[in-house]
């Protein structure tokens, strides 16, 4: 996932404005992008005047350049060092046929240099560019400030925000999700529409649990795949007190899932657990799933396909691991706090300390010896974003909610993977979840990326989203 992002850059310019502004603006934007670790695809001064786009020919040159690099370009940045020629800008984007996020930036004038030789008018030109983007039906994003210098700290934040938007949009494009096993009968809440996801460009590849167990039966304890996964498990989490037989079962399960994911080009997964694997195979898949999520190949339990999509959205935006949790318990009398919990398959990134243990909830039913493999510990404190996508069969739309809060250090004595979360006006959020019929699972991530994911989902994917306590400008 952590690849270098590439931006197509359009330098807007209008003929009767000072040309040196376009030249300097292009050079400044390229320098800023390079310093931030991004690659830029932009016209050169040999191709058009100062490498800017202002004529119909310029627009076509730019479009052809972008077409040549269409597999590389993650987003487009329109920079306006002066007013800009709005029609040439939007023609370049339309003719390129790229369908990627677009950011519009306008460079501010200086109050002490407003004479004809240096006046930009990009303050006004940005409105014209956005107006034409709207007319052409091209979705676009704007910077936090109406005008902002490319070299400023403010634009640095805009760029980080926009990069997260691009990662989410690009990461969901042609995404393949592995659904391993059947949805447990007791989990009606995680039912979903494959067809709605397919229409959004997201495919679901299924694998029956019997096939998993059949492939495992063909593996030997001494096979390279088994031993490699066993070593990876022992390096990942302390396994003191866990029977070697259980560790070998986990290793074979992990090797089979890894192999199948590669065969089918699946990036993320949702896996049946409760209680088939425990009863008929003799371990829980939690550690294997935790390891995948830790490596940003998100994995959710109970075949919660849209839940793992939520995990992956946050992971793409933040480039850090996500977990899927239950909104599980109230926390005493504090109405803005709750306990979030899972058995657990949380990535170890979430824990202050983590060890492998057994699944305490179902051990009494299937036997402790069949439930080894959970990753347990206390969720560490820190800022967090939360997200839930859902497919709505009544409206035929994908919808969701998003927001930010924090995991706290409040005392908590329980089992599994658990933490206390604090969210502003949480009762309002919980009421919305219940009134709108959302699932009890929620994705969480140690980051503050709600704004980027919301932008990606609403503006570029066209999904209906609720932003809880959205920051006001």
From TrEMBL:
Keywords: Carbohydrate metabolism, Isomerase. Residues 340-467 form the L-fucose isomerase C-terminal domain. The keyword Manganese does not apply. It comes from the Bacteria. Pfam families: Fucose_iso_C. One of its GO terms (molecular function) is L-fucose isomerase activity. One of its GO terms (biological process) is fucose metabolic process. GO terms for cellular component: cytoplasm. This is L-fucose isomerase-like protein. It comes from Silvibacterium bohemicum.
């Amino acid at each position: 996932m952590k690849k270098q992002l590439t931006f197509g850059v359009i330098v807007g310019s209008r003929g009767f404005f000072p040309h040196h502004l376009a030249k300097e603006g292009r050079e400044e934007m390229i320098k800023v992008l390079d310093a931030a670790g991004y690659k830029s695809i932009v016209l050169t001064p040999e191709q058009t005047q100062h490498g800017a786009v202002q004529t119909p020919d310029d627009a076509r040159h730019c479009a052809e350049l972008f077409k040549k690099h269409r597999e590389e370009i993650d987003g487009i940045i329109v920079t306006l060092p002066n007013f800009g020629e709005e029609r040439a800008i939007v023609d370049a984007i339309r003719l390129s046929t790229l369908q990627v996020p677009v950011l519009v930036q306008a460079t501010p004038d200086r109050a002490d240099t407003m004479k004809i030789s240096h006046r930009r008018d990009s303050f006004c030109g940005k409105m014209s560019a956005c107006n034409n983007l709207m007319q052409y039906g091209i979705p676009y994003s704007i910077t936090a400030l109406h005008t902002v210098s490319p070299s400023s700290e403010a634009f640095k934040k805009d760029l980080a925000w926009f990069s997260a938007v691009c990662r989410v949009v690009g990461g969901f494009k042609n995404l393949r999700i592995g659904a391993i096993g059947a949805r447990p009968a007791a989990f009606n809440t995680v039912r979903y529409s494959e067809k709605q996801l397919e229409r959004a460009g997201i495919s679901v590849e299924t694998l029956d649990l019997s096939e998993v167990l059949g492939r495992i039966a063909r593996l030997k304890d001494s096979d390279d795949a088994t031993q490699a996964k066993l070593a990876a498990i022992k390096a990942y989490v302390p396994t003191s007190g866990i029977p070697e037989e259980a560790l070998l079962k986990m290793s074979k399960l992990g090797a089979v899932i890894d192999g199948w994911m590669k065969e089918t080009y699946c990036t993320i997964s949702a896996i049946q657990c409760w209680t088939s694997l425990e009863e008929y195979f003799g371990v829980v898949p939690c550690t294997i799933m935790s390891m995948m999520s830790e490596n940003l190949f998100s994995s959710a339990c109970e075949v919660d396909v849209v839940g793992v999509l939520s995990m992956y959205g946050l992971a793409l935006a933040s480039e850090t691991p996500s977990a899927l949790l239950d909104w599980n318990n109230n926390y005493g009398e504090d109405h803005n706090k709750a306990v979030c919990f899972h058995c657990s398959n949380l990535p170890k990134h979430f824990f202050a300390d983590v060890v492998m243990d057994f699944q305490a909830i179902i051990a009494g039913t299937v036997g402790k010896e069949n439930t080894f493999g959970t990753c347990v510990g206390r969720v560490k404190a820190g800022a967090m974003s939360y997200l839930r996508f859902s497919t709505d069969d009544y409206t035929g739309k994908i919808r969701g909610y998003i927001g930010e809060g924090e995991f706290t250090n409040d005392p908590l004595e329980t089992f599994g993977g658990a933490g206390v979360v604090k969210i502003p006006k949480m009762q309002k959020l919980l009421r919305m979840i219940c009134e709108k019929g959302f699932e009890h699972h929620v994705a969480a991530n140690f980051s503050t990326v709600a704004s980027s994911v919301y932008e990606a989902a609403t503006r570029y994917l066209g999904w209906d989203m609720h932003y809880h306590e959205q920051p006001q400008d």
